[in-house]
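Is 2-acetamido-2-deoxy-beta-D-glucopyranose placement plausible here? Inputs below.
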Amino acid sequence: MRYLCSSLHILASQLPLSLVQQRAALCPEQPAPELSGHGTMSFTYPSSNVTRVTINNGPVNFVDRLFADDLLDFLIPLQNVTEDTPKVVIFDSSNPNFWLGHIDMRTLATPITNEKKQLGADYMKFTQLLQNITSTVFIAEIDGRAFGAGNEIAAQMDMRFVGPRARTGSFEEALGLIAGGGGQTYMGAVLGKAKAMEYLLAAKSFTGPAGEALGLYNKYYDDSQVLKDSVLELAQRIALFPRVALNQTKSVLSFLNPPNNAFQLDFEAFYDIEQGPEQQANVRKFIELSEDQAANHYELGLGESVMALYGLWDGSVA
Ligand SMILES: *[C@@H]1O[C@H](CO)[C@@H](O)[C@H](O)[C@H]1NC(C)=O
Ligand SMILES: *[C@@H]1O[C@H](CO)[C@@H](O)[C@H](O)[C@H]1NC(C)=O
Ligand SMILES: *[C@@H]1O[C@H](CO)[C@@H](O)[C@H](O)[C@H]1NC(C)=O
Ligand SMILES: *[C@@H]1O[C@H](CO)[C@@H](O)[C@H](O)[C@H]1NC(C)=O
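Reply from A.M.:
I modeled the complex. Tokens:
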């Protein structure tokens, strides 16, 4: 039992939820990581003032209803600042291939019900909360794929550090869609207009060194453990300092954020555009090629694999 508990402890971050729960039952002396309501993320506390959120939502870590609920449940209370409010939140992933995936593509297939559109609306709320919560700094620690929604959410965080497995980008335009969940506006703010146009319009993706050179990533590390250690060291340094200064710095730098009404316009445009016949054919083709969003060759081949829609993918996985 002891051996089982300790080996499960090491593996816990890679285990599916049911096994994590089993471990909690088997090993009461080691509390299981605290889980979000739907279990799509777990919370650990490397030191006071720092929270690590580890994303774990299915084979491609996609943004679906359950993840959206869990992220809102986590973010909303941070608006109320108390002594326990973390100064720094690090988002990482227990999935070695995916940091945070695209939106659940089934929610983009017509008919667009109110329920499906609500996911889009809640997604805009993350954008606002990640900005409105000025007393906490959000850091994306990316060592896997982050395409579509995952890339948009990363772009909205305050800093991004990446490791050797990072592959990110917005593939939406290849389907005739747009990165309309704040992604376009933030890519513009972070990369500048010309580079944002190039990468969005051509649905190009970034690896670590390229993204660092573009200023999208604060820093690229070629070693996953060095990434983790360095991000934690930075977080702990920030976390020592008085909150009032942190809050004022984040508040004042928000003048660089895209205007709030730009998100609303892009959100409405997204649902107009995505219901077109070409877009719907592409969404259905995407679901088919990905075998309904399994971690298959196609999903692992993002962002280049979207070119399969045009017969232009050589099948290689970056
Ligand atoms: C903030 O705290 C107050 C008082 O405890 C509570 O009534 C309110 O619901 C909280 N708001 C949020 C967004 O958590
Ligand atoms: C965030 O702030 C903006 C601008 O003040 C406001 O319009 C919006 O309702 C806020 N959003 C949330 C989710 O609190
Ligand atoms: C956490 O923040 C408090 C309040 O600013 C500070 O007194 C304390 O030293 C910080 N602790 C760590 C470990 O950063
Ligand atoms: C953060 O800074 C803003 C802008 O100065 C201020 O309005 C807000 O009250 C501050 N919040 C906290 C928790 O100090």
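Short version: Residues 81, 134-135, 244, 247-248, 251 surround 2-acetamido-2-deoxy-beta-D-glucopyranose (ligand 4) (CB under 6 Å).
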